Amino acid sequence: MITAPGRSSRVRSVARALASWPTTRRGRAFALLLAMLLVDVLLLAPQWAAPGSVPFRWIAAEAVFLVLIFAALPRRPWSLALAGAAAVLVLLAALTAVGDATIRLSLSRPLNLYLDVRLLSAVLNLMTGTLGPVVTALAATAAILTLVGTVALLGHLLAPPRAVQPLARGRVGAPAALALGVLTLGAANAGEVGRYVDFPAVRLGLDQGRFFRLLMEERATFTVDLRSTPGSYGDLPGLLDRLGGRDVVLAFVESYGVAAVDDPRYAPVIRPRLEDMAARLGAAGLHLATGTLVAPSQGGQSWLGHGTVLSGLWLGNQMRYDLLLASDRPTLIDDFEAAGYRTAALMPAITLAWPEGDRFGYDEIYAFRDIDYAGPPLNWVTMPDQFTWSFLERVIRRGSDDARPLFAELGLISSHAPWTPILPVLEEWDAIGDGSVFAAFDGVGERPEDLWRDVDRVRSHYALSIEYALHAATAYAERYVGDDALLIVLGDHQPAPLVTGEGAPRTVPVHVISGAPDMIEPFLKWGFAPGAFAPADPEPLGMDRFRDWFVRTYSK
Fold first, then answer.
1. How many helices (H) and strands (E) does the chain have?
2. For residue range 232-263, what is the model confidence (pLDDT) as tens digits?
3. What structural domains does the chain harbor?
4. Is the dihedral of CA 470, 472, 473, 478 positive or negative?
5. Where are the alpha helices (DSSP H) in 361-515?
6. CA distance 416 to 414
7. Is 539 left (phi over 0), alpha (psi -120 to 50) or beta?
8. What is the 8-class DSSP label of residue 24?
9. Could you tell me the pTM of the whole model?
10. Burial, 366: exposed, middle or buried (Cβ in 10 Å; 0-12, 13-18, 19+)?
11. Roughly what angle, to the nearest 10 degrees, separates helices 173-188 and 61-71?
């Protein structure tokens, strides 16, 4: 009786075959063809996933060149090492292309390796908060294994086998000439061929070199900006005296851009909430005005917007932000302290060390571990906005023995991706306390991995999260803001292009609220409109204009 070989025998047979199969010229040609297809997909698939970022192409010229080179090589130790090195370089180029496509989709700009490699930690934190540490660790392990397997496969396909002479010694001249002709036409972008051929790895390399050169020039530009814009206002007469000793709260709402108000996909949710804001604040005897400012980023890097408002300098990239931190440039924090205010930062999203807070010089810093929140995390969001507002009032404003007026900066994060779950705003603020009341919402809502399978539902949840953020801000203001405070609520940046579409402006709404009309009047003169909707402004000012205007306007 003849028995079929076991499964383990079949696996070993397949492995041996894969290790030795290109033993003929035809087999070698087929291996190189597979290598060319693999390189082509690795280099161009990120572009296919991010349509519109660069012209759509089907052929990566580097894939053809790579195959032509290895077709002509004999099997030598150095050629085997060269095949492995080529596989690693292709994978690095592919990862750079993936990073470029991701940055374009999420931040609406190209990748800058020098600045953006540090964002990997932020991505890891987002994944851990959204998917949990176990799933994140499994995903990272699977990704590493996939990368190692890809390098091994590509290196094996490129490596010359023992039993086959280099193809260049056979009849490879005509195909090589044809391939070189195609590549030449592609490089010249001539005729139909040029529409399908690209040099993605070369282009990315040249782009990164250009970005690095521009960043080195940015140092000199930033130095000029430091000298040409006001730094310290310590000598300004009556510094911030027109505030009359009122508390000032500067609250940044995550991903709140004008798209939430103007885009017809979101306006049916957001505009009624803004109308309700105006009505409720008016009924509470509060005055409201709204305008717009232009943020330096889109889709992320909220700290650039925060730093731009505080410093009065345009921080359009990470280098300018780092240069600000390295300088002794005073900020709005220093202005308030010089005017006799105590200053506080309430940042529930900061879960790690935050040396930037020490650099800005707040008197009090409340990061995640400094906040007595006993409720559940909500995926990436560490605590809901309503608790953050409640903590501001309970601990920072009313729980301090310091008699000085307060300047507080808030980072509100309920409208941060993944935009699930969406919580209600609780009516009983006095019951919020340490946040245990939010335990009822532990595990509610869709899982992010389920929600994000449907782009339309993601956009719907984005609108609902902004609606919640505005509802919570309104409820706080009508209950706790009177003529003794000025509340400024603004977006930190527009959401990602996934939400806004390509080419959206970086404009964000700014709402100012106070029980004292003389606190709102200067904003009206600056171009804001009464109520919850900003006036049409074809050229809104940048966030960097806020500090100088605010300090001069509210000083005698």
1. 21, 10
2. 887 788 999 999 999 999 999 999 999 999 99
3. 7-212 (no CATH), 244-342+388-407+414-553 (3.40.720)
4. positive
5. 385-391, 448-451, 455-480, 497-500
6. 5
7. beta
8. S
9. 0.72
10. buried
11. 160
